[in-house]
Amino acid sequence: MTLSAEINFDGLVGPTHNFAGLSRGNVASTKNRDASSHPKAAALQGLQKMKSLMDMGLVQGVLPPLERPHTPTLRALGFTGTDEHILSTVQKQAPHLLASVSSASSMWVANAATVSPAADTTDGRTHFTPANLSAMFHRSIEHPDTGRILKKIFSHPDHFAHHDALPPGSFFSDEGAANHTRLTPSAESPGIEIFTYGRSAFDPSTPRPSRYPARQTREASEAVARNHGLSINRTLFVQQNPAVIDAGVFHNDVIAVGSANCLFFHQDAFLNSDDFIQNLKRCFAGNPLSLIEVSRKDVPVEDAVASYLFNTQLVQLPGAENDLQLIAPMECKNNNRVYDYLNRLLAQNTPIKTIHYKELRESMNNGGGPACLRLRVSLSKAERDSLQTRVLLDNALYEDLVAWVHKHYRDTLSPADLADPQLLQESREALDDLTDILKLGSVYPFQLS
Ligand code: SUG
After folding, report:
1. Among residues 29, 122, 210, 421, which is most buried (max CB within 10 A)?
2. Cα-atom radius of gyration of the chain, to the nearest Å?
3. N-to-C CA span, the chain
4. 408 with 430: CB under 8 angstroms?
5. What is the per-residue pLDDT for 319?
6. What is the DSSP pairing of strand 126-130 with strand 160-162?
7. For residue range 144-203, what is the model confidence (pLDDT) as tens digits?
8. Other beta carbons less than 10 A from residue 164's beta carbon
């Protein structure tokens, strides 16, 4: 078995980053509705996080944003004329649609796809399924472009297999890696893939949240596992606790995170937690498994949601395979209960040895923490060497991207600005430049005017 290393590919924040309150059940999104946003600061905060992980010695990847406002969607919905005319008509007649097609939501690439590394699949290739994101209209339009970009970046057919997104609609509603975790006893062994779902679509008698939507269905998770050729003995399906979805846990990665042989999770994360943990132990077959369960006494769910304690990244530095570093948003430091808990955690005998706090306020204000911003792809050396585009961060690429943001991004954006035809033009010019920087070729369908 070849050794593979987990690479975080972070989504670049797009030039139209804004707060439109589009995601019911996502507390931060609703709370910040119609606030002015800061696209330049948002993109620089994301880049700074990527650079700091690179500086820690990790391989760090970059994924480009999608074209927004997405006028092809507006044309599909019956608006006609020039792009400029369409934007002003939609602003007058259907401003909610303008907000939906302008969201920079593709930055949260944990929702871009589910990825199963080669070690886990029957054909020995790394499998990708772009998430259909059917639960939210503004996100449901992402997958065709996301799929095209993933195919472009992970292009070698001997190494990578790409599936279509699952059928649209509520039955196979799929949120990608935000509801998927992979644990593994060691870098060379196959992983245990854990799919977490919010409801069973075909069995309405089973538990489900009553207040907020359960975005991921069991049936979607099962279909992805089948498509990826995963072994049934190393795949687990577990239901999210409906009560925490109703408390604002719209994705499982808001209440649990796992990496290597460590699962860091809240006591209330899963519906049948004890059964799930037994099954996980069985899959680990006696290999060391570190379970860090946080009690509601130490951190109430409300604080976990407000601070994004679990939307953290657990990363392993090269040469320190038994230790994990926790990449947390600054909000964890600013929440007394969570900060006290984290300081106590460091004194305990767990693999988590260091905590790094990152400023990501612009993304956090839309409900996107450190873990939302990254898609994990485990790659062997041969798979990594097969990548043709310039998507692995080094100092030169970081500098190029910072200069690109300064050149193209606005400092502030208000809801009214979304109809500005100049914003559309600026976004397209930015993406056009980006395709050169990342050597992507033509992945965006638009023509520059
Ligand atoms: O889908 N927010 C995103 C946040 C996604 C977070 N991702 C993970 N947990 N992995 C969502 O709810 C808000 C957009 C707005 O309201 O403007 C938004 O789409």
Report:
1. 29
2. 21
3. 51
4. yes
5. 87
6. parallel
7. 999 999 999 999 999 999 999 999 999 999 999 999 999 999 888 999 999 999 999 999
8. 12
Question: Pseudo-torsion of CA 18, 355, 64, 437, nearest 10°?
Answer: 120
Going from the Cα of 386 to the center of ligand 1, the distance in angstroms, rounded, reads 32
Apex 41 CA angle, 146 and 70, nearest 5: 35
**Tokens 């612009």 belong to which residue?**
362
CA-nearest residue, atom 8 of ligand 1: 372
| pLDDT for res 188 | 82
Ranges of the chain whose pLDDT falls below 50: 1
- Identify the residue whose C-alpha is closest to ligand 1 atom 5: 368
Q: Which two tokens stand for residue 85?
A: 């005319």
In short, whether 22's Cβ falls inside 6 Å of ligand 1 is yes
What are the domain boundaries of the chain?
5-437
Question: How many residues are there in the chain?
Answer: 449
What is the reported pLDDT for 2?
64
What is the per-residue pLDDT for 397?
A: 98
Total-model pTM:
0.98
pLDDT value of position 187:
82
pLDDT given for residue 448 in this prediction:
85
Total Cβ atoms within 10 A of residue 231: 13
H-helix or E-strand spanning residue 404: helix 395-408
Q: Is-cis flag, bond preceding 69, omega within 30?
A: yes
Q: Is 110 in the pocket of ligand 1 (CB under 6 A)?
A: yes
List, by residue number, the catalytic residues: 175, 251, 372
Instruction: Tell me how far apart the alpha carbons of residues 330 and 39 are, in angstroms, rounded to a whole number.
Output: 19
Greatest CA separation found in the chain?
64
CA distance 147 to 131: 9
- What fold, for 5-437? L-arginine/glycine Amidinotransferase; Chain A (3.75.10)
- Quick one: CA torsion of 83, 89, 95, 99, rounded to 10 degrees? 0
Q: Cα(39)–Cα(46) distance, rounded to whole angstroms? A: 11
CA–CA distance, 25 with 269 (Å, rounded to integer): 16
User: What type of residue is 276?
Assistant: F
Q: What is the pLDDT of residue 428?
A: 97
- Count of alpha carbons within 13 angstroms of residue 316, beta-carbon side: 22
Give the residue carrying structure tokens 């925490």.
244
- Ligand 1 midpoint to CA 281 (Å): 32
Nearest of 211, 212, 213, 181 to residue 196 by alpha carbon: 181
